[in-house]
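User: Structure please.
Assistant: Input sequence and predicted structure:
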Amino acid sequence: MLKVAQWITMMLLFSAPLMAQQIISGNVRNRDTKEVIPAVSVRQIDGNAGDYTNGQGNFRFTARTKFPVQLVFSCIGYETLTMEVTSATALQVVLAPASVLGKEVVVNASRNVQKKIESPVTIESIGNREIINSPQPSYYNMLQGLKGVDITTSSLTFTTVTTRGFNTSGNTNFTQVVDGMDNQAPGLNFALGAAIGLTELDVDNLEVLSGASSALYGSRGLNGTMVMTGKDPFKYQGLSFQVTQGVNHIQKGKSNDPLGPSPYYDYTLRWAKKVSERFAFKVNVQYIKARDWVAADTTNTNSQRSRYQDPNYNGVNLYGSKTSVDINPFLEGAMAMIPDLAPLITPMLDTANYVARTGYPEYDYLSSDAKLFKGNIELRYKLKPKLEAIASATYGQGNAVYSNDTRYALTGYHLSQYRLEVKSPQWFVRAYTTIENSGNTVIASPTAQLINEAWKPSYNANTGDGWYPQYTSALLEAMASGKSYEDASWMARQFADQGRPAAGSAYFNHLKDSIAGLPTREGGTLFQDRSRLFNTEAQYNFSKLIPFATIIAGLNYRLYMLDSKGTLFPDDDGPIHVAEYSAYLQGTKKVIHDKLSLSLAFRVDKNTLFEKPRVTTRASSVFELAKESFLRFSYQNAYSFPSNIQALQSTPVDYNSFASGGSTRLLNGVYQFDKYPAYTLSSVQAYQKSENPDSLVKFIPKDIMPQSVDAFELGWSSLIGGCVLVDVLGYYSTWTNFIGYTNVANTPGTDDPNAFKDHSTYVQYNIAYNGAEKVNTYGYAASVSVDLSHNFLAKANFSSDFLKNRNNSQINNFNTPNYKFNIDFGNEGFGKKQRYAFSTTFRYRPAYFYQIGFASGTVNASAVLDAQISYKLLQAHSRIKLGATNLTNTYYRTGFGSPAIGGMYYVSFAYNVF
């Protein structure tokens, strides 16, 4: 026993140096200003131990080794420092500020960590520091200043992002990924902007890949991909909050703005805590409330005449006036009853005399109360130093308006996402679900048409009375008294509109709520979208197993559970399941003394609605011409399965049919045409003219197919003299089976207004179909960033996009000017202890044509200036910012039919946000 005890004692003494644990702690500050630096990475060289500095600049961790210990300190915007520690004394570390030009790191261009300047494809990025110093109160609005990026602002809380031209509200061909989760609404297949995006204080970085990106990110990546990454609670710790209050709608009446000065509120809070070296959590909350920008364009979509001159007047943002009919049959009926009117009526019958019902303006009809609440909880546990488990829950609720075939007011929508993930530096496994609730959606045009029918039918076949008979009678009476046709038409409208409820009145709201609250299958306009998405994916990096190349591979399974209760999809009998399977492989190899990087990626996807799988590829090369100078070339093939709406839409549109239990629907589709008769403009007209008024004409278009694009890009990036960063590119793309839209199921009377005798109203929707032509897009862009020293930075970028071989029968959503440019100038810290900062941005867009489902026209040129100045309260770890977006309050639009955006002026107070 004595020998055993002696042996154990000797082993413990021998192993003691190997098992030594040293506590390493200290504080990190800015060399120039002496302020603390949070989120500095402190890592032990040749070991797994390390920490991040907290909000007070402090760090502390246990190194399982004996002294001396080699440490490396790194942080964006500072020079990396290597230090040898020989004892357990608290360290006082200072880091020297450094330019970030050419040193930005991106991950999502190739799913590998690499310097942005060496990326094989065009990628734009925004980091936490840029968001803090931005004049825009929302980082979503910062995106419009990036090279080649377009946005459509449909609502204060709903901004749609895209690249390379195809710009529209609710873009299904642009992918938004947040912390690895596809952010799309499961039923509609487009991201609802910031609805469940990251809160303002939780954005670590944001990367936008321009153009085709399907090879790595799957279907619907034709117009680009935006990847957002939230802050790691192990790295960004402590309590942070930001209070922003401002005012918009400064000048009532300007650009038809019906509102006066209105408050803007934005409250954001983030709390993150590292409970131990293994466990950390974060909580995020953001609440925004304001009066929304109002779409108030009164341009007549039917002619150049004003509402007083044109009986068929249909304003862009007036709803209900799409109900339009040729009143000639009513004129003929009047002449048959009173033959003495023949000299007055006969000349009028030489041409059609279309008359529209009176429309309602958006203000007082659609709610202008913009609200957004977002909440997020995330838990992280380190199973091993480099193996981490993550669980998160994200919830968004609010009001927003977006534009498509009309304006849609989403009131009280809900979106939530839940994620479980295990990851290491080499691999990850991730599962998440998205749950959608469309809330109470008011569909502007159809709802207004039905409101008009509710307070006074266009024509009552039983009584022979109605709005159009009254209008015709008053018209003839006024003309008989000597009034001109235009004056008589206006007088007739006033007569027929007697009893018309004003927008916002109690009676109007009663009618609106009863119609918008009734599902489409029952004759109302309510969509009941409760769809869900389930996604599981895994990726592995084989670099450690295959050292001569960087090879990654991944698998993905996605299930859409479409559940609209028969209001959007043919799912009356229960949810429809649509599954997608995919696998991808990418290899990267450096050759010629590591000067040339070659990459090749393949992806295969299968959607259960379509028979054949789709294979996409990406091949790229990056050649180092000189130090910090790189030439890139890439070929990318991308594709898009039709969205669920494009493939499966089954929207009831014949409201009279509902009364008798009918099932007439507006259809897109790949399989349901044998089940439901479909309406198009031609089938509506044929139905109206059919000898048997009870028959339905079946319109069976060609099944919709996936679209694809082949894209080539050549670019050059270079850091010149360490202070000038230049990026230049050109691209050319060819689209096959291009999916566009056309308006169908229009209001009655297009050719035969006698249809009123059988039907009171139809509404207009647009459906998707493949164009036969091969469509080409091409363009070029350039940017330059200059570090002017002393924290001054100037940026400018220019981009240009073109479309040729346009199919004029399609609404193609290529909505961008032929060129645009942006200029930024600012300073992140000047004056005593660099307490002051400022930034300015200038964006110019020439006039351009914008095409969308419910209206098309010219978006006027815009020149927009944003600016802010801020001051740091160093002792309080706080910052005060005074800023303005659209400083000159010159109203502008980012889309035809979208709201006019005026100036907003604000002040914000931020704590522990640096």
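Residues 7-19, 654-663, 683-701, 746-762 have pLDDT under 50 and may be disordered.
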